[in-house]
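Moderator note: this is an archived Q&A kept for reference. The question asked for a predicted structure of one protein chain; the sequence and the answer are reproduced below.
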Amino acid sequence: MRGWAAGLASCTGVLALVVISPHSSGQEKTRKAGAVASRAASASAGPAAVSYAQRFAGLCAACHGANGRSDMPLTPVLAGQPSFYSITQLFLFREGRRSNEAMTAVAKTFTDDDMRGFSEYIGTLPPVPAPPSATAPDKARMDKGRALAQQHKCVFCHGTDFSGGQQVPRIAGQREDYLKMSLRGFHDGTRPGYTQAMTAAVSQIPLEDLDTLAYYVARFPAPVPGDK
């Protein structure tokens, strides 16, 4: 615990400099990570005049969507995310504190200026609602999810509309599979956070309740039959 606290303090201090300073599973997975790293290196080597909007389109949009809404399984929606949250995650990937081969390969090529530039651009992307579902949300699960969000104080940090802010992510309309994976990662300690708040918040919640929370938040604020 003491070692993690020291590491977190170091992470926070370096991240503050990044934000403020003006200068400051197998062969297929390995192949994909290498390809992503190559594209990232090419993007970083481009002319300074190339905007981060253009670089996002060339490097990030294939997975995260041109408008920041991903269609790929287990890939987070970036649209509507606060820039400070985005730079925090890029930092964690660059420093090897979050584990994802493709994102680590990309982030390791980023300078501090790159992390600021990409995160600031992501911060300009407006929220994009999830595509309409073929079926209406299950009222019983939505009601239970709403109650769980209140019970476990999700709204205290993420807001009553789950829009987040600063280092707290927007989770309203996030992909359900990504939410489920993230919540389970915080639950078992495999997903690090900027602080230990999420690990502490979800570590004692039953997995089935975490899945219900993911179901609810992914569909928020979709109208539910029978609600007034």
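Archived answer notes: DSSP finds twelve helices and no strands in the chain.
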